[in-house]
Amino acid sequence: MNPGYYRFRFFLDLVRVFVVPVLALHYALSFWQYRLGTLSLPVYSSFVIGWATVKCVYVESRKRREALSLGARPIPQVVGKWPGNIDVLFKMMRAFKTSYIQDVYLQLFEEYQCTTLNTRILWRDNVRPFRLVAPHLHPLFEK
């Protein structure tokens, strides 16, 4: 999609994350003719969070099964202390102010001792390959 349509993409993301689960629960409750009353807000909020959690677990398990069936290894994922690797995101944002963008990724590659890494920020895959002009000069490639 054209990068100029970022507002439209953002709108579609909001619809996918919030509107679809709310409509699914609404139509399910309507089908069973059940009224929530004062519990509407907590039930709908919990359902949106549960929907996102179940969807994330399902997608991850499907990707693992597919990788195993192809005989591939999963890409190492950065493990943060906060949910959604938000602490990693904040660390990267602070480092971007004082250093080159690739320096942050280089530190992560050295920490995880790999050449491809999934930062998995906000539960979305963000795969970064390590590209170096002279790989024989970097310690990651020494064996």
Termini gap? 41 Å
Largest sheet properties: 2 strands, antiparallel
How many DSSP-defined strands?
Answer: 2
Which stretches are poorly predicted, pLDDT < 50 over at least 5 residues? none
Give the overall average pLDDT. 86
Percentage of β-strand residues: under 5%
Helix content: 55-70%
Radius of gyration: 20 Å
- Secondary-structure element order, N to C: HHHHEE
User: Helices and strands: which structural class?
Assistant: mainly alpha
The largest sheet has its strands arranged as 1-2
What is the tally of helical segments?
Answer: 4
Shape: elongated
Number of domains: 2
Blueprint of the fold:
Elements: H1 6-31, H2 40-70, H3 86-98, H4 101-112, E1 116-118, E2 127-129
Antiparallel strand pairs: 1-2
Helix pairs in contact: 1-2
Characterize this entry briefly:
It is built from 4 helices and 2 strands. The protein has 143 residues and is mainly alpha-helical.
Please tell me about this protein's structure.
The protein is mainly alpha-helical and 143 residues long. It folds into two domains: 3-70; 83-141, no CATH class. 57% of the residues lie in helices and 4% in strands. The chain has helices at 6-31, 40-70, 86-98, 101-112, and strands at residues 116-118, 127-129. The protein has a two-stranded antiparallel sheet. The model has no long low-confidence stretch (mean pLDDT 86).
